[in-house]
Amino acid sequence: MSAIENIAAQVYLNNCGLNGGKEITGTSAVTPADGYYFCKIEVMSDMVVAAQGDVTGATNPTLTAIASIPAKTILYGKWNSITLTSGDAIAYYAKG
Description:
Blueprint: H1 3-16, E1 21-24, E2 36-54, E3 74-95
Antiparallel strand pairs: 1-3, 2-3
């Protein structure tokens, strides 16, 4: 496979959640498995973000500045931790 084909395959895995993911609930910080970061967050019920940890060099939306993120919203970025005030979500892994 060429380098571009490898990148395309990894993007596909990330977007389909085939690298795995983690449920984000409660008010404690949630972090990805070792060697991964969160690349996609699917909001399951309206949520409020208390804190976010961005991967170095990432240009992510400032989720803490949003009063409430509605259910069914999908967010893309590179996060190494997410802490909620309320709501719940599923965060999908990408290799870091």
